[in-house]
Amino acid sequence: MIAIYPGSFDPITLGHLDIIKRGSRLFEKVIVAVLRNPNKKPLFSVQQRLEQIRQATKNLPNVDIDSFDGLTVNYAQMQNAQVLLRGLRAVSDFEVELQMAHTNKTLSTQIETVFLATSNEYSFLSSSVVKEIAKFGGSVDHLVPPHIALDIYKCYNQKSPVLNSTTTKTMSFPKKVSPDLGV
Ligand code: PNS
Fold first, then answer.
1. pTM as predicted
2. Is 160 in the pocket of ligand 1 (CB under 6 A)?
3. Residue 49: which of 12, 6, 104, 85 has the closest Cα?
4. pLDDT digit string (tens) for 22-67?
5. Is 130 helix (H, G, I), strand (E, B) or coil?
6. Fewest 10 Å CB contacts: which of 33, 56, 77, 166?
7. Does residue 40 have an active-site annotation?
8. Is 21 tagged catalytic?
9. Quick one: 173 exposed, middle or buried, by C-beta within 10 A (0-12, 13-18, 19+)?
């Protein structure tokens, strides 16, 4: 059975990779499919994301990387896939994901959505969280593979944070001078 793992992956996180790894044990082939979405302004181009994912999954022989546009079910049919693979982190995901699964079912009865519960350690993790942390100078070394962390720091013009503590991974910024207080 072939499974499509569709998403934006801007960027791919350790949570996504956990789903891909576990999916690759369940299915003959997993195709990680990056949506080309002209309505979104991503941090990374589709080409960059494909390269990031390729590098991160190079040790998984039955995982392919691709991009697509249009409806996911049409892409799945084109690839002769029977399954759409999605990760579920929390109840908040469930509502959106269930609606998406039902919608896709109305578009193609041949395709099943299969959910994997995200591993506990990644239950908080999303691409948006990663971007938010990096934007404000924090370390994302524990959230994405090293080559992607470097890409992210480059984007935000940030040096790789050097602190190793898991609780205080922040950059120190110069103190803001307040004209009112005269400091
Ligand atoms: O990583 P994301 O942004 O949560 O992924 C969402 C994605 C790409 C799976 C979803 O938006 C999608 O399938 N878009 C393609 C258009 C489509 O098929 N829409 C019908 C299902 S709602």
1. 0.89
2. no
3. 12
4. 999 999 999 999 999 988 899 999 999 999 999 999 999 999 999 9
5. helix
6. 166
7. yes
8. no
9. exposed
